[in-house]
Amino acid sequence: IKKKTTTDRNRVAVVIAFSSRKENILNLCQNIGYRFCKDKQNKCQIVQEFLLYRKNELLKKEELKTKVIEMYENGYKPMEISSTLNENYRTITSIIQRRDENMSTVHPKLSMSAGEFLIETNANVETGMLYLPIQSIEIVDEDIVMDFTTVEDTHSFIANGFVTHNCPSETPEGPNCVLPNTRVIMPGGATRQIGSFSTDWQNSTVISVDWDSDGFGDRTGKTTGIARFISNPITSKTKIFKIETDTGRFVYATSDHPFYCKDRNYEGRINASEIKVGHKLAVLPAANDRPDWTSLIQHRGNEIILDEETFKNNLPPHSRTWKKALEDAQKLGLLPLKINNPKLLPLLRLLGFVIGDGHLFLRQRTGTSGLPKSSVGVVFSGKPNELHEIRSDLEFLGFNNIHVSTKQVKSELENGQIIQEVTSQLRVDDRILWTILKALGAKVGDKALNVPEIPNWIRLLNDDIYLPILREFLAGLFGSELTTPKVDKRDGKTFQTPVFSFSVVDNPKYHILAKNYINQLKDALAKFGVTISSVHLDGGTLRKSGNYTAKY
Length: 552
What we know:
Layout: E1 2-3, E2 11-18, H1 22-32, H2 38-73, H3 78-85, H4 89-97, H5 114-120, E3 130-140, E4 144-150, E5 156-159, E6 162-165, E7 183-185, E8 191-193, E9 205-209, E10 221-233, E11 240-245, E12 250-254, E13 258-262, E14 267-271, E15 280-283, H6 294-298, E16 304-306, H7 308-313, H8 322-331, E17 337-338, H9 344-357, E18 358-366, E19 372-382, H10 387-397, E20 402-412, E21 418-428, H11 431-440, H12 456-459, H13 463-481, E22 486-487, E23 495-496, E24 499-505, H14 508-526, E25 532-537, E26 541-542, E27 548-549
Parallel strand pairs: 1-20
Antiparallel strand pairs: 2-24, 2-25, 3-11, 3-15, 4-10, 5-6, 7-8, 9-10, 11-12, 13-14, 16-17, 18-19, 19-21, 20-21, 22-23, 26-27
Helix pairs in contact: 1-2, 3-4, 9-13
């Protein structure tokens, strides 16, 4: 256990509170989300699903109000309306008497509070999975269906959020598939229509769930390739069902397409034709409005973000073998770095995380030859399970010189309070990665002395490419520093405000830089429909060591 100390500089931490409005939180979860921190991703998904439930309930209230008023104005009596719509008589009379008021004041409260929703859906924060009750199921007419077989031996994928088994063979009724516009979850939470995989399925990956036919398995999402893509016309024997939950989430599937069910009397695989109203189906929530922008970026063209000269200028001091560094970066496919480079998005995620909860270190010394030397590295800090995805991105980029360490840190405050925490660090001692992240906008050394910013090259991009680049950067940043929206335990209805913070030196110069960064964040978040409600200073603490730390 090491005692945690502070420097002799006075520091302040800027605390940015996001708006707690439900629409704002829904936009944050759906349009940006969190990367790398699985716990935050899962909590965000569950909160998102409750907000969709709430939105759907309010929509149903508005539809009920419209029907009641229309029937009343057409001469129906309240008792007749109540009988026809199978609604409570007092509810009907309340709507009629107060029909000019806002709908939220004339209809009973939501069927479930946030706390009740978590219990009813068996929400699991370790996996992000819920079991949503089916509200309706009906047979519909369609022309063509599609499916694929995943490489992962669990043979599952996520269709419009529903955990579903892929279909390796046909049944007597025809193919077991979903519609071409069904959205499939990609790694990172973006979604893509299954029909769009027809041209590049061999090079694509999706999310699969470890869950066998008996309902066992760890049920965590994992990345898998696609082994086979299937497109089939509808036959005369094929029946297609529209299955919808009370959150408004729905999927179209053929009768024998398998889903996963958890009911009082059954847990395991169930075909679409066997699903009844009230059955609970497994859902791994996806932001269906969050598109997969990979193809857009890869077809952008040859616009260069980082060229050889800029790379050379950002190399560590005393890099006498800069030609070798250039060659190594080119061999890794990172120079010149263009918009359409498939390695750009992982770099952006890592850049955001480093700016939030990591750092670039630089150590300079005199070598045995008497000449100055420098050693560099990139450090990512977090919980052990948070570093797994970071490691995957680093290995995809070609960096394998990775060291992971875990330690327990003990801090003692002036009042005698002891704070202990376990932290893990993933360190990459590689000057290529260090140089690229520095050139893209990461700061070197003490972050309190180097106030972060959204890199200028991102802010100068054209609108059509700005959003996908910005989203990936922000998702990495928020995975490291932004708290998740939490249900307020006092009422079970409202949400505590998500908070983002960073430290700076308590000096007018750094306050100005901090305000510039805050304004950049405000402008960036507005592109995704997310707003900041307040910015304030959080008071610091005088430690026993005599060092003073302050939060801004």
